[in-house]
Give the backbone structure.
Amino acid sequence: MAALKLAIIQPSYIPWRGYFHQIQKADVFMFYDDVQYDKHGWRNRNRVKSANGTTWLTIPVAARGNVVESTPINEIRCASGLWRRKHWATLQQSYGRAPYFERYAPLLEEFYSRREDRLAELTIELTRRLAGELAIERTRFVRSSELAGIEGAATDRLISLMRAVGADHFISGPTAQAYLDEAKLAAAGLTLEYMRYEYPEYEQLHPPYDAHVSILDLLFMQGASAGELIWGRSAGEETA
């Protein structure tokens, strides 16, 4: 029987293509939404290309002092204000002339019209919609906050999460090599692989090329063929 592959990442705002590569490789993708919010991470921000250079799009979050840093991601709320209008305007100004901007404009216009104020609800929904646009259809999505009986920390917690969804193979980002106990995973009968983020360049509207921008840049420029610049052609396409 083939191994059930699991990938786990915190919910993020319009992630880069490596995030979607992990989704595509996994049988189950887990949004790790009940861990502590990281104030300067990717939960509420990402980068896009513009005529003025690489630009941050940041969703302001509601917080008093440093309270936000001890709050689980799924409890973080977006601050009120005009951020939705500003982000959509920036995307229109930056990518209005991109070959496939009009293809994805309705999806994004709908997203930026939503009144939901919980950060994770917004970012998870948009990530799932964008995964669909990349033709990722077989991956099952779950949230860590939905799972009962999760115990331990570090590698022990990972094992508990894997057991909860029936996974026996873990797909990890490369930085986890610094802290994962590979021997403990092996002793539990679980296998492990690390991602290798090696992607080809593509034409961007605003040089110089930047590989580490939101997936929106790739979609706007490549349309339905965007996946070919992440995981390549599927086996069926290669033999067609």
Summary: Residues 235-240 have pLDDT under 50 and may be disordered. The radius of gyration is 18 Å. The chain is about 35% helix and 15% strand. Helices lie at 17-25, 83-95, 101-111, 119-133, 154-165, 182-187, 215-222, 235-239.
